[in-house]
Amino acid sequence: MDSRGGKITVALIVVCVLVGGGYVAYAALGPGETSTDASPSAAASSSDVAVMVRAVDPANPALNGGVFVVEDGKVRRRSEDLACERVYYAAGHGICMGVAASGVDYTASVFDDELRPQHSIRLTGLPSRARVSADGRYGAMTVFVSGDAYLSTPTAFSTRTYLLDMKSGETIGQLEQFDVSKDGARFDSVDFNFWGITFDPGDSDRFYATLGTGDHHYLVEGSVGGREVRVLRDGVECPSLSPDGKRIAFKSRIEGTNRWRLHVLDLATLGDHPVAEERSIDDQAEWLDADTLVYSNGINVYAVAADGDGEPALLIRDATSPVAMGN
Prior knowledge:
Elements: H1 10-17, H2 20-29, E1 41-42, E2 51-55, E3 65-71, E4 74-77, E5 83-84, E6 86-90, E7 93-99, E8 106-111, E9 117-123, E10 126-132, E11 138-146, E12 157-165, E13 171-174, E14 179-182, E15 185-186, E16 193-200, E17 203-213, E18 216-223, E19 228-233, E20 237-241, E21 247-253, E22 260-266, E23 272-274, E24 286-289, E25 292-296, E26 301-305, E27 313-317, E28 319-324
Parallel strand pairs: 14-19
Antiparallel strand pairs: 1-27, 2-3, 2-28, 3-4, 3-5, 6-7, 7-8, 8-9, 10-11, 11-12, 12-13, 14-15, 16-17, 17-18, 18-19, 20-21, 21-22, 22-23, 24-25, 25-26, 26-27
């Protein structure tokens, strides 16, 4: 492993990288105690865009759920074969990160446009984030891992972020092994961790992600083929590119707390503004369309205007991991 391969301090792991209390609960439950009985329901607010979601049990959102699509207020189950902690889909290719058939390990399924599993990938830790490029060429997965020798306790977590060839299901790179530059110079540290990849919709070789090191959460831009990333600015977690590739929705940490506000960043200026959602949202937001974000608070799925106006609208109850099918 690279000298910095996923190394991170316990403080950064607990405060900055873990995706909220849901994953703490999930880790405590263990794979053998998950369930696939949950089913989502459409709320009064509706969208013209179909949304794929992972259903959750309202009594315990940490439990596994099946894959459903909600469109025009109607809910339909898309697969009896998939049960996911994270799901993402684009251009006929998808990733489902969940529990292996053994019940004691974690796995990812690469599935086709009929949601039939095509490839299985053994995961090295707890599922965290998943994305697929708009053309279906590449996929990305982040997992939490524990027990690394450099961590101060065996239960502390670090991350691994992998890039996939969606056609073959093969791993083509690990972000922790990419070259990093900052201000035109090589940038390296033993506590580098990456998470939250988002692909450029117009060029799947280009991606953005978060690089965590010390107390910083840098937005980085990278190249799959070039195996390199460069730092753009600080204070950006879980980026998500807009359909036009010009804006990024992200989590902005509220200083001194373990809470976040959703913001939108202009890539041309690197300036940003908050959206109207005032609750702490620990999610990698998705763009429902060119003007609207969709995201989960861990129990339900909401939408909010990207320009900061209006107020959040409840879209889908008992669901997480929303994927806009119209992008």
